[in-house]
Amino acid sequence: MLELKDLTYQVEENNETLTIIDHLDLTIDDGKFIVITGPNGGGKSTLAKLIMGVKELTSGQMIFDGEDITECSITDRARKGISFAFQQPVHFKGIKVLDLLRLATGKNISVNTACEYLSKVGLCAKEYIDREVNSSLSGGELKRIEIATVLARGTKFSIFDEPEAGIDIWSFQNLIQVFENIRKTVKGTVLIISHQERILNIADEIIVIENGKVKKHGPKDEILPELLGTADAVNRACSKMS
Amino acid sequence: MLDNIQKQLLKEVADLYKMPKGAYNIRANGEKAARNTTENIDIVTKDDKPGIDIIIKDGTKNESVHIPVVLSESGIKETVYNDFYIGEDCDVVIVAGCGISNCGTHDSEHDGVHRFFVGKNSKIRYVEKHYGEGDGSGKRILNPVTEVYQKENSFVDMEMVQIKGVDSTHRVTKAELAEGATMIVHERLMTHGEQKATSVYEVELNGEGSSTDVISRSVAKDNSEQIFEAAIIGNTVCNGHAECDAIIMDNAHVVAVPKLDARNVDAALIHEAAIGKIAGEQLIKLMSLGLTEKEAEEQIIGGFLR
Ligand SMILES: Nc1ncnc2c1ncn2[C@@H]1O[C@H](COP(=O)(O)OP(=O)(O)OP(=O)(O)O)[C@@H](O)[C@H]1O
Ligand SMILES: [Mg+2]
């Protein structure tokens, strides 16, 4: 279980304090498949980075399986079982896809095992295993490799930040299947940040983050109709602008 | 004949665990330690100065020459002249390299002057590794000079590696290319402590359609200093590209000096240089996979210098 208590994250910009995450309280139960959604700039990625320890809290507390991880480094959190597929994957000069998957598993896994992870994200494994994770890969390819590293870790708490972004519609169906499979097979908690109805549709719970706060949180059957019924993303954006 | 330290050095600079196949000449502490010639590759000791001539017959294919040098006594200072005469239509691999183990208080220095005369249509792969070890206060110094003269349609692929333990290096590489000739250089360098490394390339593209690609990847740690200078001179229709990509850490100092000199409207010359620290996002990604910051750094540098 992950408990977020009174989380606040602020940044200083031009001598002004911006509050990105605003006294946010949230409890995420074990084994749930949860989708976080909400308007652009609402604070979803920031929240995910706070959980992974990539950004430091201004105030608040984080409890993971009963243990206070507020002060833990990224490495410690990773070792305690938290994984994160970044919205914008980084690339490396000289590090190959196989190397990255080996680092992810922490083992010297065989090429075959590595290929299985790649196949799961719809990449023809043989073509990619030996390629460098550098800028010669397309955005969609990098994104899939990023997802594969988190699948390869297989930790009890996995976060995916907009995994569908940049992935073509032909593969999108596949990707949904990947997440449906994860949902069925993985005992851990999966937290996906997404704007896609199809992904929202396979959630156990949906959380809506807006202005750095939890706007809604509940079972899919309750939240999804509200989201689809009232304001869709476009309407919300328009009303914001006017 | 070779002691254990020398064998270890050989392993580092030439990946040699035992005597290589093919032609070789092993020089240890200023003297010839072993030599083998083949039907197509002859090695002759120079009589006017220290060094050897390596003569490769026309049409020699799939053969190799190893000419490693090891210094394990403190205080040796030598300049050695090696000339490679490579015939036409050859395809050979040449492995050079110098390993210095200096546990003493005197400086050890090896300055190798290598000249390559590459015949028409020949293909050469040249690997040169530098390695130093030993905890004495004596410095380990290597100042190699390489000159390459390429005939028509020849192809030279050079790999220059210096990853550890050399206190001071000043490398000068000069090349002149005739019509259709190609030279590719991959340099990999890591400096640490108080080390200094300078690498100067000057490639003259003289023949139509000649081309070169000089690529340097380096990591500078601690208080070390690196200077990379690449000059490409285009005298005709030709293609030249030089690239310096460096990771700077701690209090290191890295200088990249590009020089493109075009003397013909159809000379296409490009230089790219990038110097910067390890990207924070790269460290973060690897740490999120469970690596410590130090482990992440090692992986990033290891990949970069591969
Ligand atoms: N270091 C920073 N300095 C200034 N503003 C920041 C900083 N970090 C985040 N923000 C702002 O915080 C807000 C939340 O950003 P975040 O990336 O978390 O949004 P998001 O919900 O993931 O949006 P999207 O759906 O577009 O991915 C944005 O308005 C962003 O510009
Ligand atoms: Mg985001």
Automatic annotation (TrEMBL), chain A:
One GO cellular component term, please give it: plasma membrane
One term of GO molecular function: ATP binding
Q: Does the keyword Hydrolase apply?
A: no
Q: Which InterPro entries match?
A: AAA+_ATPase, ABC_AA/LPS_Transport, ABC_transporter-like_ATP-bd, ABC_transporter-like_CS, P-loop_NTPase
Which SMART domains does the record associate with it?
AAA
- Entry's Pfam families? ABC_tran
Q: Which residues form the ABC transporter domain?
A: 2-236
The record's keywords, sorted A to Z, are:
ATP-binding, Nucleotide-binding, Transport
What is this protein's name? ABC transporter ATP-binding protein
Task: Name the source organism.
Answer: Anaerovibrio lipolyticus
Upper taxonomic lineage: Bacteria, Bacillati, Bacillota, Negativicutes, Selenomonadales
UniProtKB/TrEMBL annotation, chain B:
For this protein, the record's Pfam families field holds: SUFBD_core
Q: Sorted alphabetically, which InterPro entries does this protein's record hold? A: Fe-S_cluster_assembly_SufBD, SUF_FeS_clus_asmbl_SufBD_core, SUF_FeS_clus_asmbl_SufBD_sf
Return the similarity comment. Answer: Belongs to the iron-sulfur cluster assembly SufBD family.
Quote the protein name from its UniProt record: ABC transporter permease
Q: Which GO terms describe its biological process?
A: iron-sulfur cluster assembly
**SUF system FeS cluster assembly SufBD core domain spans which residues?**
88-304
